[in-house]
Amino acid sequence: MPQPTAPKDMTDILIVDDDPDNLQVLERFLKKKGYRIRLAQSGSVALQTAERDPPDLVLLDINMPDLGGFEVCRLFKENEQLRSVPILFLSGLDNTTDKVKAFQAGGVDYVTKPFQFEEILSRVETHLKMRRLQIELEKHSRNLESLVREQVKEISDSQLAAIFALAKLAESRDEDTGKHLERVQTFCKLLAAKLSEQPRYRDHIGSTYTENIHHASPLHDIGKVGIRDSILLKPGKLTLEEFETMKNHAILGAQTLEEVRSKYPKNAIINMGIAIARSHHEKWDGSGYPDGLAGEDIPLSARIMAVADVYDALRSKRCYKLRLSHERSCAIILENSSTHFDPSVVEAFGELEGRFEKISMEA
Questions:
Q1: CA gap 171, 254 in Å, rounded
Q2: Which of 90, 102, 222, 228 suits 275 as a labelling partner, its CA being 20 to 30 A distant?
Q3: What secondary structure letter does DSSP report for 289?
């Protein structure tokens, strides 16, 4: 009967048996077939040597004095480093109960003593081949997951870039805004992270929420594309009629984004952008626009945006106003806590005002 061809590489096999004669016989035979062999006369020694350098396959006896084969196998499978190593039982026990216990412990095969060397070699090579295929499959799976992650990130980055470009286009008509969008992104992210430390928001604001508001916040004034220049860029105070027209930008922005949502209903950034665009001019006391919402009926993202947007507006020069100092800007926000602004957001702002000042001076 022709014997299977020996592998070219030095595959590592650990043989565990308390009988030195069995160890020597198997060692001589498998070494001739090109395998690197390690020997262990007890279960505890087998575990120690395997943990230092995991083998490719284990040939394991059942009846041993310190740790029996079933227990050794179970310990292998509980060890994250060793659980994938295939274990082939070699035993003089030939009843069905012991064979079932061997497979239940995690063994991949069972050969009864006395064995034929050709059978041992055939089963060893079969399980080593399966192991190599398993490793290749796991490697391929990891590579595929990595590729998918890269593609998803590329798509996500492209979408975020398009969203920001759209917001930038809306802002480009006003040359005085500078890096307003970039600043409010940072302000909103800082405020959300600080609010997450408060017990009432701990379960509501996580890392995903914080990232989403960072990316959605530039959409807050996108509706201004629908406001004519004579109003948007007017250097003086708006008339009541002009102000009513200006207020429409909140609804226009939300409606524009709702068109996008109709095609991408599960996009969390667009959904948050709608809430921010429509409601960032609402006030805590209900005197804001466009819906006259009050308190926690105002979306949290819009309440955060209100503080970030007003601070940046106060600190920025506009065609209709001069730039205010950091101290005066902070005072205005604090004075309007519980009227214009959510007091919890103002509290978070108070803890961050030093960072706000630094950002407003750098950008």
A1: 16
A2: 228
A3: S
| Residue 159 CA neighbour count, 13 Å, CB half | 15
In this structure, the answer to whether residues 194 and 97 fall within a common structural domain is no
pTM metric for this prediction: 0.58
Residue 178 backbone zone (phi > 0: left; psi -120 to 50: alpha; other: beta): left
Chain-centroid distance of CA 236 in Å reads 48
340 and 224 both lie in a single domain: yes
Q: Which strand (E) or helix (H) includes residue 16?
A: strand 12-16
The CATH number given to whatever domain includes residue 326 is: 1.10.3210.10
**pLDDT digits 0-9 by tens, 95-153:** 889 889 999 999 999 988 887 888 889 989 989 988 888 888 778 777 777 766 665 55
Determine the structural domain holding residue 18 and report its residue range.
12-142
β-pair partners for 59 = 15, 88
- 3-class state of residue 321 by DSSP: strand
- Asked if 353 and 234 sit in the same domain, the reply is yes
Domain count, the chain: 2
